[in-house]
Amino acid sequence: MARKKNRYRSKRSRRSGTLRTWLKTALALLTLVVSVVLLSGALAYSYHQLLEAPWLRVEEIRITGSKHMDNREILNTLGVPRNANVLTLKMAKLAERLQSLPWVRSAVVRLDLPARIVVEITEREPTAVIAAEDTFLMDKEGKLFMQTTPEQSPDLVVMTGFSGLGLRKGSVLPAGPFNEVKRLTETIDKARNWLPLKQIAGCNWQTDEGFVLYTAHNNTPVRLGTEDLDAKLDRLRRVFGMLEERHLLDMVTRIDLDYSNRAFVEGNFPRPKAPHAS
Question: pTM of the entire structure?
Answer without folding.
Answer: 0.75
